[in-house]
Amino acid sequence: MALAKINTVAIVGGTHGNEFSGIYLERRYRQQPELMQRSSFSCKTLFANPQAHEANRRYLHSDLNRQFKTVDLADPTLTNYEQSRAKVINAELGPKGAAKTDFIIDLHNTTSNMGPCLILTQAGPLYNQLAAYVKLKMPKAVISRDEDHFAQDDHALLCTVGTYGVIVEVGPQPQSVLRQDVLEEMHEMTQHILDFIELSNLGKLPELPKKVEAFRYLHSIKLPMSSSGERLGMVHRNIQDRDYLPIMPGQPLFTLFDGSEICYDGEQVVYPTFINEAAYYDNNLAMSLNEKVWIELN
Ligand SMILES: [Zn+2]
Asked: Which one of 35, 43, 106, 171 is least enclosed by Cβ atoms within 10 Å?
């Protein structure tokens, strides 16, 4: 089955002001547009949150990457800096639901040891083939399905402003730091996505694997907290840096400051992501849990 033709692509960096790979990659592509241009579509870049970057922070008032629900974009009472930026970005790349941008690539970093990760927030044949292509070209890439059962209108992420959109999430990288290995993996994955769109548009995709391993988000878990809101412990040393590796029922998840351990009390094997992500400490989130799934191509 032929996929929809993609005519317009936007590459977005700096949605979070202290995630430096996307900020520097957006700058590089803006200065060297031949790196993002292909024959069958037009491509531009956007620096999403320049004031947060100036302040060397993730955001000034609220997380920009949580402001893109259709109902919020239409709400004139939401007026802080990021809420206003969301409306400007929606006007420039969207409007969501009838977007002038066919495909958005939003560039992010994580402090967690997740490697190069392609995050899909919607399901469908184009995403399935993209996942298979990226995995074929970059075997170490990880495919993540993040609440792709939600309607696009109900997603709050910037990339959902486009008709299609994905997140390129690469780690580990500390906040406000640039690592060469992480920057190069982000560049490589972005190039594969652009090549996929080009080959799909031209009807020249190679033979793709029929099954692709992916991780589907289940829920997040919090650090152990006291009833008065104090942290009682930390992520267990045997979980730290082991993103995507299985957690078995009964396995220790947290070490408390009194030396005791809290174990995983679920009944199915789960796969953690965003372990000890620095940006989630304000909400005391310890990690996300996922199940392993297979994306099947028709
Ligand atoms: Zn981010």
From this structure: 35
Across 161-177, average pLDDT: 98
- Which positions ≥6 away from 4 have C-beta within 8 Å? 102, 126, 163
* 204 Cα–ligand 1 center, Å: 33
Indicate if the alpha-carbon torsion angle 248, 254, 260, 266 is positive or negative.
negative
Which helix (H) or strand (E) covers residue 143, if one does? strand 142-145
pLDDT of residue 94: 98
Q: How far apart are the first and last CA of the chain?
A: 9
pLDDT tens digits, one per residue of 4-23: 999 999 999 999 999 999 99
> How far is the C-alpha of 129 from the C-alpha of 166, rounded, in Å?
13
Q: What is the Å distance from ligand 1's center to 267 Cα?
A: 31
Give the distance (Å) from ligand 1 centre to CA of residue 259: 33
pLDDT classification of 1: cutoffs 50, 70, 90: low
Q: What domains are there in the chain, each with its CATH number?
A: 8-209 (3.40.630.10), 213-296 (2.20.25.160)
Determine the distance separating the centroid of ligand 1 and the alpha carbon of 298, expressed in angstroms: 32
Cα 182 to middle of ligand 1, angstroms: 14
Distance between Cα 88 and ligand 1 center (Å):
19
